[in-house]
Amino acid sequence: MMIKNYRYVGRTSKEVFVIKGINVFSEKWKHAGGCASVIYPVNGKTYVFSKYISGGVEFVAGKDANGYWLFFVEV
Q1: What is the distance between the alpha carbons of residues 26 and 46, in angstroms, rounded to a whole number?
Q2: pTM
Q3: DSSP 25-74
Q4: With 60 as the cut, is the pLDDT of residue 4 above it?
Q5: Which one of 18, 23, 26, 70 has the largest count of C-beta atoms within 10 Å of its C-beta?
Q6: 3-state secondary structure of 20
């Protein structure tokens, strides 16, 4: 099993978030298969979120307990 590292790129409570110049909310999200374990650097909590592709951009995303979308990209 290959372990991949992910970098936190931000959070939002709105329907706008840009990764590599693409607003991922303006494109359809396609499940990329599988999940990833990520660490939210603000509080050190570990989450298991799904992997997605939107507008050709791959990312890991999910909501925290406060309803914010947290976004991570592969390093």
Answers
A1: 27
A2: 0.92
A3: GGS--EEEEEEEEEEETTTTEEEEEEEEEETTEEEEEEE-TTS-EEEEEE
A4: yes
A5: 70
A6: coil
